[in-house]
Amino acid sequence: MSETERQLSIIKRNTVEIIEENELKKKIVNSLKTNVPLKVKYGIDPTSPEIHLGHTVPIKKLKDFQDLGHRVLFLIGDFTARIGDPTGRNETRPILSVEQIKENLSRYREQAGKILDLSKTEFVYNSRWLSKLTLEEILRLTSVFTIAQILEREDFSQRYRSGRPIFLQEFLYPLLQGYDSYALEADVEIGATEQKFNLLTGRTIQEVFGQQKQVVITMPILVGTDGKMKMSKTYNNHIPLQTSANEMFGKVMSIPDGAMEEYFRLLTGIPEADFKKVVKENPRQAKSLLAKEILKGYFGDAAAENAKQEFEKIFREKQAPSDIPEFVVGKNLIDAEGECCLLNVMVESGLLPSKGEAKRMVIQRAVKLDNQIIEDPYARVVVKDGQVLKVGKRRFLKLKIQ
Q1: Structure pTM?
Q2: Which residues, 6+ apart, have CB-to-CB distance to 37 below 8 Å?
Q3: Strand partners, 340
Q4: Which end of the chain is least crowded, N or C, by CB within 10 Å?
Q5: What is the mean pLDDT of each run of 10 residues along the chain (402 residues)?
Q6: Range of the domain at 259
Q7: Which phi-psi region, left, alpha or beta, contains residue 163 (left: φ > 0; alpha: ψ -120 to 50)?
Q8: Rounded to 5 degrees, what angle do the CA atoms 361, 224, 9 make?
Q9: What is the domain count for the chain?
Q10: Is residue 178 located within the same domain as residue 41?
């Protein structure tokens, strides 16, 4: 196998579409001939401070390019985040303030570094060129597309037909993302399948402005822990990178069996024949292997093994975890009879965000005190030192008396 074919086979792994593959091959051949690496762009708007496992699918493809010796341009859309990407939305995204964007940005580099070699990663910010565009340049950019072409986007067409508002700034978003590719002279851009329209916009703008067109690579969208919707913080079905090893292990173990092969394929390096065999023969063992393999990349072998043992201790042996956070029940929570309301304890301790959520968990029989199910949402109990409060499957709290 030639070096060109070797690189192509690695790049093509897990991709949905390459537009166009023959162009990519020519770019690789030229790169090898001239010893000039390809510029590979991936953009993300800092609309949230978290990167979750769904984001890692295209980032892992960036790592493939990086390992092959190409330049990775990790584009932070600090300017476009002020508009909000309308992709996949049936309503206008809220406009972020500069302060919100800066706060979200502060955690991006650290999280991306869990996958990429940061010493070889170039972080670029599109405010550097987009904030300097003149009105004349913006008008030239808008002349590249017609309103009819923009309305071909499914999310825009659905909103238009239903009478929901589409603001002019949202029409500009794909044009600005495409201009990013022109400004960076990108050879390749990677994005999720839902980003295809925006990615192709970059090709069009580059061609109109006399630049060689970038190759577009679309990546699959990872399903969330519910096994139905795409992984997203919005749907509360995401697995963030910035979490504990035990929490990540537990969340991976919660995914439906039907999603396991997709997770193996997109998030691990285990050969397909191997993971399909274990999924078919022993789904429980397969899921444990999946969780451990994912964790190894972010926490290391030892932490992954410890998380596995802790999970088995809690869920199979029905024991409490080794390290349970403590909460001191203050005098303000205890009445004259020495009793306290567990709803208040769950909220004050931060175990649950609100009394409404705490009440819902009690009604669902998901709250236990020393392994005894609490059935009354307004139950008052005499708290003793060392009692263990359990909410759901993975949340524990050891109570202490002030």
Answers
A1: 0.77
A2: 31, 69, 70, 71
A3: 381
A4: N
A5: 93 95 96 96 79 92 96 90 55 61 76 90 92 92 83 73 78 89 96 90 94 96 92 86 88 92 94 92 92 93 89 66 70 75 78 79 80 79 75 75 71
A6: 245-315
A7: left
A8: 160
A9: 3
A10: yes
